[in-house]
Amino acid sequence: MTARPTFIGLPDEAFVGGKWRTASGPTSEITDPANGQILQTVSQCTATDVDDAVAAGAAASADPGWCGLLPHQRARYLHRIADLIERDADRLATLQTFNTGKTFTETRALVGSAAATFRYFAAVVETHDEPMTTARGNYRTWIQHEPIGVIGAIAPWNSPIASDAQKLAPALAAGNAVILKPAEWTPLVSLALARLIEESGLPAGLVSVLPGRGSVVGDAIVRHPGVGKVSFTGGTSTGRGLAHIAADKLMPVSLELGGKSPTVVLDDADVEQAIAGVIYGIFSSSGQSCIAGSRLFVQESLYDEFVGRLIERTRSLRVGDGFDPSTRVGPLVHRRHRDSVAGYVDLAREEGGRILCGGAIPDDPALACGAYYLPTIIDGLGAQARACREEIFGPVLVVLPFTDDDDLVAKANDSVYGLAAGIWTRDYRRALALAGRIDAGTVWINTYKAFSISTPFGGIKESGLGTEKGREGIAAYSRVKGVYLGMDPEPNPWVPA
Ligand code: NAP
Known about the structure:
Number of helices: 15
Pfam families: Aldedh
CATH superfamily of the largest domain: Aldehyde Dehydrogenase, Chain A, domain 1
CATH class of the largest domain: Alpha Beta
Domain Aldehyde dehydrogenase: 20-482
Number of domains: 2
Radius of gyration: 24 Å
CATH topology of the largest domain: Aldehyde Dehydrogenase, Chain A, domain 1
Bound molecules: NADP nicotinamide-adenine-dinucleotide phosphate
Structural class: alpha/beta
Shape: globular
Protein name: Aldehyde dehydrogenase
Number of strands: 22
CATH architecture of the largest domain: 3-Layer(aba) Sandwich
Distance between the termini: 90 Å
Keywords: Oxidoreductase
Active site: 256
């Protein structure tokens, strides 16, 4: 166990319209999930702060100093932000490990991915061509992408900074202003990012970061008439509520929602590779990942051998403080969330599930004050059990057998979700056929949770609406305009001379 770094707090201020100020609502305590201690307090924003942020964002996005910039000039700001994130990467990752409990290895990777996201969208905006479209008369015609204006970006607590960057970078690249609302439990790294954005020299007002409650500040952002689009990442029921409000406003909305992703091990899989992939897919980030492979389907002929070895390897995962380099499974984000995960495991027991490993809070006294839960594997559940159907968002894997590919597809698709899937097999023909048949926005074959900013990402069914990332990620923050340029030298003959 290495010594924990010293926590260096941030001033209790929100970044509203380019100015730092104490938010207008009550304060909330930000806790360290590794030991339950209060790290600092943060004042929560309210509708008043949203009003000010929207007014500043609207003015800044319409200012010629921003809207008059050419794409390569906007790209320079994104590179500057990336430079600053890279300069302060260790500090940001440390802050995030304190706030979320994720291991430092994971938070360091998230910080790196945030910088890479700003660079990627800088490159995309610089190389984005506006296509000429095919004329059907004596004119030229083309498409023009224009900024929407003020974007509301609402983020969850599981991967702040990476999820912040996935919204901020394409929205700014497209020429918008952005109001970011981090999750109430995890605002610290988003506020630290705001200080770097300020340091980058980005014109004031283009980015606001408003910590606070979803039901207060999040709701005010979605309902505000000055907000032209909301990009939301979070749970399906929250996303559905937002979509109703957006429908009333006729406002576009992107929704990145929950998942209950199937991982499939076929009878010809490379077992060692599959075991490592399955374990990483569910237990990294302590299972708090929208794409966690939380339902494991193993072909019957391999079931006993595979599950036996899986249990053995899972028991060897070290559970502990995220700052300890040997830790693989850190605490969950909050004691309240840990209790929700524990409640699902209790329910699975009542529904007839066999707890093959874990299924408890660790008994190590050093972890007693933290939000820890042991990596848990459950089998023997029916497909209708709640642990098989609902997103637990913790280190809990349910295992189910299947007979053949048709049986597998029926079972894997028996879910309201369609976010991701994993397939482990040596037979690429079989893998590709299954990849086409499983309902998922992303399919991994012989890998899991590989994540590239250049590949579009989005869920189907109740896992989301729209896509983020990829070259098209920028289009999600643009309005499309068709422009016609008449080439006829004569007046329109329809009008009598
Ligand atoms: P959540 O409860 O839905 O909250 C997400 C965000 O929405 C938070 O900032 C939350 O604020 C805010 N919010 C809550 N109620 C709101 C309202 N009425 N109006 C506007 N905003 C509101 O989700 P979470 O528990 O933070 O995150 C876990 C969920 O996110 C999981 O379901 C996970 O699968 C999903 N997720 C999806 C993806 C993806 O890309 N598909 C990625 C990561 C996570 P508060 O913090 O104040 O509640």
